[in-house]
Amino acid sequence: MSINLSKGQKINLSKETNNGLSKVMVGLGWSEVQPAGGFLGLFKPKPADIDCDAFAVLLGPDGKLLNHTTAVKECCIFFNNLKLWNGSIQHMGDNLVGGAGDCEQIMVDLKSIPANIHGIVFAVNIYQALQKNQHFGMVQNAFIRVVDRDRNVELCRFNLNENYNNMTALIAGSLIRTPAGWEFQTDGRASRVESLLNIVGMYS
Questions:
Q1: Residue 42: inside a domain
Q2: Using CA atoms, how far apart are residues 196 and 39, in angstroms rounded to an integer?
Q3: Reported pTM
Q4: 29-30-35 Cα angle (round to 5)
Q5: 14-22: Cβ within 8 A, 24+ apart
Q6: What is the CA radius of gyration of the chain?
Q7: For 112, left (φ over 0), alpha (ψ -120 to 50), or beta?
Q8: What angle do CA 22, 26, 29 make, to 5 degrees?
Q9: Domain limits for position 70
């Protein structure tokens, strides 16, 4: 049975399976708030679609960016860098409009993750948010969930249901390597930033 987590809560994923945990899918979802009707029942023109992008930031044993580099393609898995060099972390592709269920998925082979990676932070930002005057107050039903891929069983879920008005990036949660196995910890912090590079810089 899936566990619904709250902000700041963590769970040892390895203890949730009888035979250990090998591969997980991290799914992130969201949908746009539907615009209200206009004057005399006429609908307002539909605004531009909100293009949310999920990504993973890779951290070293000190909790900082992997190898202390801010070069996005060296420390981040995202729509323009879909796979870690050994294939252990793979982004399954960009979703431009959101919708029901997982909008974007990131596959993680826990047993193959290089030893120098101790944390994987999962976040979502709005592409060109400031230019388009878009923010997460225009988005609803945001969530992150972790699925045991071998059994196709959802292990846990975190619904990001706070008021994120005027925020353009959300840090949803992270996988953390510990002596007792991999943990998942929820986050829920939000920022108003211009680009993915700004979020990566938070961990430098």
A1: no
A2: 38
A3: 0.90
A4: 165
A5: 14/180, 14/181, 14/182, 15/180, 15/181, 16/148, 16/155, 16/156, 17/148, 17/151, 17/155, 21/110, 21/148, 21/181, 21/182, 22/109, 22/110, 22/111, 22/149, 22/150
A6: 17
A7: alpha
A8: 160
A9: 21-31+48-201
Residue 119 domain flag: yes
Residue 8 within any structural domain of the chain: no
Domain count along the chain? 1
* Sequence-separated (6 or more) residues with CB below 8 Å from residue 21: 13, 14, 110, 148, 181, 182
User: Angle CA(30)–CA(199)–CA(117) in degrees, nearest 5?
Assistant: 95
- Kindly report the CATH number assigned to the domain that includes residue 27: 2.60.60.30
In a domain, 170, yes or no: yes
> Each residue's pLDDT tens digit in the chain (204 positions)?
789 999 999 999 977 666 678 999 999 999 888 766 555 555 555 556 888 999 999 999 999 999 898 888 899 999 999 999 999 999 998 765 556 689 999 999 999 999 999 999 999 999 999 999 999 999 999 999 999 999 999 999 999 999 999 999 999 999 999 998 999 999 999 999 888 888 888 898
Q: Which pair of tokens denotes residue 163?
A: 């008021």
